[in-house]
Amino acid sequence: MAPEVQDGLRKDWDTYFMDIAYMVSTRSRCPRRHVGTVLVQGKKLLGTAYNGAPMGVADCSEDGCMIVEELEMQVEDGVERMIKKQRCIRTIHAEQNLLLFTDRIDREGSTVYVTDQPCWTCANMLANSGVKEVVYHRAYLKDSEKVISLMQVKGIVFRHLSAYAPPVQAGMDVIS
Question: What is the Cα–Cα distance from 147 to 152, expressed in whole angstroms?
């Protein structure tokens, strides 16, 4: 379903806040993936964050990515197999930064808009943060099933804006 336009002139709230999340993501210096997130209470924006190295520390564009490889057991069609996953450990994820720089009282019952589906670690943090809803655009298949299950167990509304189109100014090719 395409995002609806209200009054023929204005974007709907989901599009409006996801556009902001994408524009926030342009602050990221990560060469692999720019992620942005916003915290919303009702229709009031309470905070923004993006992925990157800790403040005052060289980022990936300066010192390169710190890639680690992990093995994870997955079951497909009843067959167990080891899957190799790579991730950068230099970067603090956008969701983590959002939780670091917003107050718990503001998060209670709020909505988080994030450009990318949260990873397992971020989903765990969001599950304990007080938010009632997480809205994302780009799927993150590496942790998708676990994250969806966690959100269901916690009663957090978890919505994928599949028909959404990011602002042209925020575009980047994502490296998986």
Answer: 9
* Residue (of 155, 159, 151, 51) closest to 98 by Cα position: 51
Task: Indicate whether 176 pLDDT > 80.
Answer: no
| 69-77 mean pLDDT | 82
Q: Are 27 and 83 in contact (CB under 8 A)?
A: no
pLDDT tier at 3, thresholds 50, 70, 90: low
Domain regions of the chain by residue span: 13-53+92-162
- pTM of the entire structure? 0.85
Consult the annotation and say whether 119 binds a ligand. Answer: yes
Is 88 among the annotated ligand-binding positions? no
Q: In whole angstroms, what is the distance from residue 153 CA to residue 93 CA?
A: 23
Taking the mean position of all CA atoms in its chain, how far away is CA 175? 15
Q: Which of 62, 76, 95, 145 is catalytic?
A: 95
CATH of domain 13-53+92-162: 3.40.140.10
Q: Which residues touch 60 (CB under 8 Å, ≥6 apart)?
A: 29, 30, 31, 32, 53, 66, 88, 90, 91
For residue 72, list its beta bridge partners: 83
Is 95 known to be catalytic?
Answer: yes
Cα–Cα dist 144/127, whole Å: 15
pLDDT at residue 115 tops 90:
yes
3-state secondary structure of 146: helix
